[in-house]
Each structure stands twice: as C-alpha cells, then as structure tokens.
Design a protein that fits this description.
12 helices; 34% helix; hydroxypyruvate reductase [NAD(P)H] activity; glyoxylate reductase (NADPH) activity; NAD binding
C-alpha cells in the first residue's frame, strides 16, 4: 500500500522528520532562509494528500478549490487565519493547529516584552553599546514598576491565562475581557472580568492576547488608545491586525500612552524604515512568541502526529474543523 504523500512548506530538521517517514511519503521545501514560493505551494497543494503549513502560507479559496487529492492541512501555529477554514470544510479538508504546546513559551515572551518596555531594557542596552554611559544620575533611564500595578488582558484564552499566572507572581491586579466570562479562571487567579472600555481605562499594562476575528480587527484604534492612561503600556503578542499601527504611532507620538511592546504587526516582516522603530519607547520583536527550540520541535511533532493519525484512520489530536 502506498504511503500518503505529505508536503512540508519549510525546511524542518531531519531528526524531527525522519521517524515519520516510516508512515508518510514526505516532500519538503529545501531553502532554509526562504519561504515556499507561491508557485511551489500551488503545485504541491494539487499533488499532496496532506500539507504541513506555516502561518505565513496563504491557503485561500482560490488555492483550495484547485486541490483534488488534499485531505488535511496541519498548520504549525495556534492561529489559522491563513487558512480559509470554511472552504476547507466545504471540500472536506481537515485542518489542525498546534495549541497548548506553545502556551507557556509564548506567555514567557509576552511578559518579558512587558518588562522590557517598562524597564527600558532595550534602550539601556543600546545606551551602553553607543558608549554613552557616564556619571550616575537619579533618573537615568528610569522606567516604571511592574509589581503592584494593574494588568488588563484582552483575550483570556490559554496563553492569556498563562500571562495572568506570571502577573500574579508580581503581585499585579488582574483585569480581563473575553468573549465570555471564565468563572474558574477568576477563582483560580483572582482575575476580574470587566468590559473592554473599563479594561482600557483602569489598566497600567494592556496586553492583547485575542485571536484575529471580524470583531477584533483594529479594535485597538485611536479611540481605544485615547481611553488608556497616559502612563499605560500596550503589549501585543497575538495578531498584528488587532491594532491599527498608524493610530498606535500617533498615540505614542502624542503622548497618549507611554510605550508599547510588539511581537506582531499588520504586515510582516517590517523593515527598518517602519515609523514605530523611530520611537525609543517602542520594543519590537520579529514574531518570536513561541520561538524556543523545545517548543518549535513540539509544534513540528504535533503537526506530524496529526497527519499520521489522520491517515491511519484515527482522529487528529488538535482539529480545527
């Protein structure tokens, strides 16, 4: 019996992939520094039984309706807004993602980003590299405290809850807004559910951990930033399009909020002439929320496990549709 053909759209370590070759006929993009080309993605989508894709691979309606053999897409991310899931379901194509395995890793990065902005760590590092360190002064690179402050988490999913646990360790008051209240989370973490506007008005740190939906698209706009405290810091480690970057820049430039830390952007990758990079009170990271060796390996294996289980007639571990 022929093994199902699966195409992987990035070059993954062979030590991860090799054990799965016993079950799958695996093809893989071979250029380490470049993403799969649009032409190659379309070609492989039409000949593969399964795909292992990245968040940056657009699996839209036009591409999906050309596929004859494709049965499953294993997306190596928690999010799957790169995939037209409705169209995939229409053509009976299974979609899976990689939740849970990256929860703590992404929460670590999110809280680290919050601290980096609050304590001006990146700016201070550059200060030394520029050979500017001179005599001590009372307010040299003085930031703002994290402990005993109020954190407002927009989107209390698994990662939001993990961020809240870290905030407890800093004796922070925890506010949150979510599509639905989570009573168990409130009891466990001492978090308080508030409406979105109240979260903006009361939080010292506003942290966006919400998925990108029609409702959350550009929810952080100029009006939202104006409702925040002038001392507030905005952190986004979920999806770039939940914020309007132009409005964020204007709010920072006008002093309507104090700073921001971003791991995501509306259009990625950004370049060195991006307006937000001009501002000292901004810390930008290249979408590395889950980027530890341990977690990325777990994500790869989960995708491959989902593919094997599907083709062996079992239910995938983490189905989206």
């Amino acid at each position: 019996m022929n093994k199902p053909y699966v195409y992987i759209t990035r070059l993954l370590p062979e030590e991860i992939v090799k054990p799965y070759r016993e079950h799958l006929n695996i093809g893989m993009w071979q250029e380490e520094e470049k993403p799969v080309s649009k032409e190659k993605l379309e070609e492989e989508s039409q000949r593969a039984d399964g795909l292992l894709t990245m968040l940056t691979d657009p699996m839209d309606e036009d591409l999906l309706k050309k596929t004859d053999r494709l049965k499953i897409i294993a997306n190596m991310a928690v999010g799957y807004d790169n995939i037209d899931v409705d169209t995939a379901s229409k053509f009976e194509i299974k979609v899976t993602n990689t939740p849970d395995v990256l929860t703590d890793t992404t929460a670590d990065l999110t809280f680290g980003l919050l601290m980096a902005v609050a304590r001006r760590m990146v700016e201070a590092n550059q200060y030394i590299k520029d050979d500017r360190w001179g005599p001590w002064s009372p307010l040299l690179l003085a930031g703002t405290d994290v402990h005993h402050k109020t954190i407002g988490i927009f989107g209390m999913g698994r990662i939001g809850e993990a961020v809240a646990r870290r905030a407890r360790g800093f004796d922070m008051d925890i506010l949150y807004h979510n599509r639905s209240r989570k009573k168990e989370t409130e009891h466990e973490l001492g978090a308080e559910y508030v409406e979105f506007e109240e979260l903006l008005e009361k939080s010292d740190y506003v942290v966006c951990m919400a998925p990108l939906t029609d409702e959350t698209h550009h929810i952080f706009d100029r009006d939202a930033f104006k409702k925040m405290k002038k001392e507030a810091i905005f952190i986004n480690a979920s999806r770039g399009a939940t914020m309007n970057e132009e409005d964020l820049y204007k709010a920072l430039e006008a002093g309507e909020i104090a700073g921001t830390g971003l791991d995501v952007f509306e259009q990625e990758p950004i370049r060195k002439n991006h307006p937000l990079l001009e501002l000292n009170q901004v810390v930008c990271l290249p979408h590395i929320g889950s980027a530890t060796v341990e977690t990325r390996h777990k994500m790869m294996r989960l995708c491959l496990d989902n593919l094997v289980k599907y083709f062996e007639g079992d239910k995938p571990l983490t189905s989206v549709n």
